[in-house]
Structures are given as C-alpha cells and as structure tokens.
Amino acid sequence: MSPASLGEFGRIARFFRPLAAEFPGALGLTDDAAVLSVPPGQELVLTTDAIVAGVHFLPTDGPGDIARKALRVNLSDLAAKGARPLAYTLTLAVGRDVGDAWIEAFAAGLAEDQAYYGIALAGGDSVSTGGPVWASITAFGLVDAGRMVTRSGAQLGDVVLVTGTIGDAALGLAVEQGRLAVDAADRDALVGRYRLPQPRTYLAHAVAAHAHAAIDISDGLAADFGHLCRASGVSGRIAVSRIPQSPAARRAIAASPALMSQVLGGGDDYEILLTAPANAVPPLMAAAAAAGIGLTAVGSTDRADSDAEVYLIDDDGNRVAVEKAGWTHS
Amino acid sequence: MSPASLGEFGRIARFFRPLAAEFPGALGLTDDAAVLSVPPGQELVLTTDAIVAGVHFLPTDGPGDIARKALRVNLSDLAAKGARPLAYTLTLAVGRDVGDAWIEAFAAGLAEDQAYYGIALAGGDSVSTGGPVWASITAFGLVDAGRMVTRSGAQLGDVVLVTGTIGDAALGLAVEQGRLAVDAADRDALVGRYRLPQPRTYLAHAVAAHAHAAIDISDGLAADFGHLCRASGVSGRIAVSRIPQSPAARRAIAASPALMSQVLGGGDDYEILLTAPANAVPPLMAAAAAAGIGLTAVGSTDRADSDAEVYLIDDDGNRVAVEKAGWTHS
Asked: Could you give the ipTM of this predicted complex?
C-alpha cells in the first residue's frame, strides 16, 4: 500500500505555502513565479547548491535534517560572501513511495531554520524520481552594491582567519562510515557536525565590513585556501598548530595523529575562511565574540605570485602534507 | 573503461564558464556566488523548474535537447509573467559514467538557446547521481516594478487568448509512446513539440503591457485555465472549436476525434494563456504578428464567482468533457 499522499498541489498548499508566508513576492506559491525587489543601493547575491542521498547526506538521515542541510550549505555560501539571507527557491525530488509524513517533516526542518536564519521560501518545484532523494536550492541574499566579498580580493600581508572549528565533519563522516571509533559523546559531536552544518550567518555583516576575501570551507581547508589564494594571485601559509579544533576532534587526533591530514584535506566544514588587513582583526574578533562564533587567526598571505602557492606549516616551519587536498563530492 | 572526464572543476572551466561570459556578476563561475543588480524601477521575476529523465523527457533525448528543454520550460514561465530573460542558475546531475562529450553537447544546447533567448548562466552546481539524469534551473527575468503579470488579475469580460497551437506536445508524447500512429512528417512535428518547447519570450513585452492575467500551459489547457480562473475569482469559457491546432494535430484528430480530449487535458504545450480587455486585443495581435507568434482569441471570462467554474463548450454551447484535466507529472 502506498503511504498517504495529498498529491503535488496538496502538499504545496499544506506543507510549503506556510514557508512562503513571510515573503509576499512568493504570492503564496500560487503563481508560476515569484517577484523580488532589491532595495536601492543594494545588490542580490545568489548561490546554488544541491545535495543528493548517499553523496552529500546519509541515507539514514531524517527528512528534517536533510532539509536543513540543503538550506544550510547555501546559507553558508551567503555568509562567506557577506550577504544577509533574503529568500530561496527549492526543488525537491522524492520517490512516489514517499508519503506525506516525510514531506511534512522535511518542511518542518525548513521552518525551523527559516526562523533561525531569517530566510523565507520564494518558490520551487517538486518532482518524482526513481533514483535517490535530492534537493536543489538557490538562495538569495543582499549586500550593499559593490560589496559582495569574493575569493579574489586577498591582498599581500593579510591575516588569514577561520571561524569555528575545522575537521569535525570529516571525522564525523569517518565515524559514521566505521573508519574511526570514538566514544559516544564525541561520536555525537562529530557526526552532528557532518549532518548539520552551522552556517556563520551572524558573522556575515562583519565579513562584509572587514574581509578582503572569503570562501566557505566545503572542499577542505587546504583546498579552499588554495582556491582563495589562486583567485587572489597571492601565496599564503597556515600554521597547522593554530587551526582551531573541537575537543572531540582534538581527542581523536591525539589518539591517532595521522587523522590530522583528514582534518586539513577533508570537506564539509562549512566554516568561513577569510583574509583581512591586520587592523581589521580586532573589530572582526569583537563581532565574532558578540555573535558567539569562534574566530581564529591561522596564517597570512605572503607575496604576489602568479603561480600562487599554499603552505601548511608545522611549528618548525616545515611543510605539512595533506592526504586529500581538494576532495570533491561532485 | 570510464569515458573521458575532466573532473568537476575541469568541466566547469571548459564547458560552462563560456556560458557565463555575458553575465559579469557570474565572476566567471570562479566564486561561491554570483551578484546581480536590478535597475532602479524594476523588479526581479524568478521561477524554478526541474526536469528528470523518464518523467519530463525521453531517455533517448540527446544531451543538447535535454539542456534546451530544461532552460525553455523556465523561459516559458518568464514569458507568461511578462518578464525579459536576464540570467539563470543550473544544477545538473549525471552519473559517473557520463563522459565529457555528453557534457559538452549539453553545454552546446544551452549556448544555442542562450543566444536565441538572450539569457546567460549566472552560476550552478554539478552533482553525481546513481539515478536518472536531472537538471534544475532557476531563471531570472526583469519587469517594471509592480508589473509582473500574475494568474490572479483576470477581470470580468476579459478576452481569453492563447499563443501558438495547443495539443501538439501531448499528441507527440502519445506518438513517442506508441499510443498514436501518424505519418513521418507529422510524427516529427508532434514529437518535436514535446521534445522542445517554444517559449514565447518575444511576446513577453506585449503580455506585460496588455494582459490582465497569464499562465504558461504546462498542466494542460483545461487545467491551467482552471488555475487562472480560480486564482482570479472569475468563471470562464473556452470555445473548443476556436482552439488553435497545428496541421499535424488537426489531421490526427480528424482521424481519431477522441484525441481531442487529450488536446484539452494533455500538458507540455508551453504556450501562454492570457486574458486581456477587449480594447487590448488589437495591440496584442499586432505584437504577436510582429513576433511571428500565433495568437488566438478562444473565450472569455464570465462572471465573478467564489467557486470559479471553467467551461469548455462546443459549437452548440454544450460542455465538453476533458479526459485528464490537470494531469501533472510531478
């Protein structure tokens, strides 16, 4: 027997229309399109990220967590660009055997994060698939005109900073896949970071005000630092010993130092890596403290270099190898 | 052996970056996000539609046609809202066994339609899937502020008009699925309409200038007319004998009159159904003629009705039944 289904229109009306209530331009999801005004002096920042079952999330994840991850990976991009969240569109693909209860839980996850991060549904599409569940989101944010923070603005002598802690998600995935054993509390901490990114939305205003360049760390610290340096035409170095780690990650690495290379090379941190001039570090730190978000200076940009190089160095100044720099789950 | 693959970054650089060349805010697809300016006095119209192999297109369709269909179903929504195309984001999911040649042909299809319809790639994501190929597009257009044409603006005594011809795509799908036999030329004509919608982009300015309400016909003429009337709180009638048909559709229906019900109820026409006051019909007709797009008056809106009813009537004034009003391929 098929699970209960209100049908496509019924599900939109019942579960998704309430998510659009805060965004008048969505017209209650009753039209073919939404309309969006950009205030004078501002610009729209837009980003698109999709997640697919078995690739970007665990098939065992609940629908609410899947929804929140889909939204949060996009919110993370907006935050790294210094943009305030405004609205998003969603395309959701599920099998015909997925019942209303699953959709309701998915929408409830979105509702929770919409309220927390201040974003609303503007429109979308729902399709059926015989393959894995997937969700594709395009998210919209606002910045003052000309002030979107790019990857390419890093300047010589910038301080390199990262938010939060690095490596938890990569270790959490290793735990979930049975490649790493930790105690129950650390398991929850690490797997939780893999399952649900923490977009640094509340630091976006400070990134916009102070950063020369920024990127959200999704491919791994080493890889994304490389992307930023190459786009900016600078070389950079990060001191490995200064990379912020959670207590759970620190314990795992203490027990098995070889894991450090997964911390540097693994992905899914969804922290912000940014560069800023030295005199911007105090106001950035103050903004991070006010937002309750960790922010740590980990390195510097070195010299203009047409063949930009990235160094991860240990306390003796030696270069550290990265196991899997630039892993991508395409 | 796996087919050749440049990898995700290589494919973006080689095949997709050229598609973003006309849209400076895309930053050459080298950043996490794009930036988009909306000129003063204008608003952004946004729409999202995804297509999935085996649901919205035939597994035998070539990659270029798949790409163009994905873009065109979104362009059709923009046209119905009276919006000029501006940019779009794309999420594309293919299997790991899909080689570079497939991606190159997909991008070539986009390039062709971008040039024809005047739209550029602003950003996107590519993911791998073990399931069917799919593409999700969010498209952006511009309208003068407050002038997006909705479904809900129809007024009493409006003329109801449709662009192009109705029913070809539904008959084309029937041909493709072996449910309908026609000669080779008609087969090409009908299947072609199913495979590649013809968005009425070049009529968007006239829709914006003159229509009270509009919708693109994707669920079927009867169903979408119902959507428009209900949203507007009016009743409406369409004279079946006035519904424009292509020569191929006319021949098929002459041979098998029962097909008429598929014309009325079938989907994927991607024509525009609009309502306008009688005095706007001449300028609409002139604009359609100038654009080389057929435009036919097929009915009228009747009376305000809280329980809006839609009538399809024959030449004797009798109501015509529709086989599958509102079929949806969710």
From this structure: 0.90
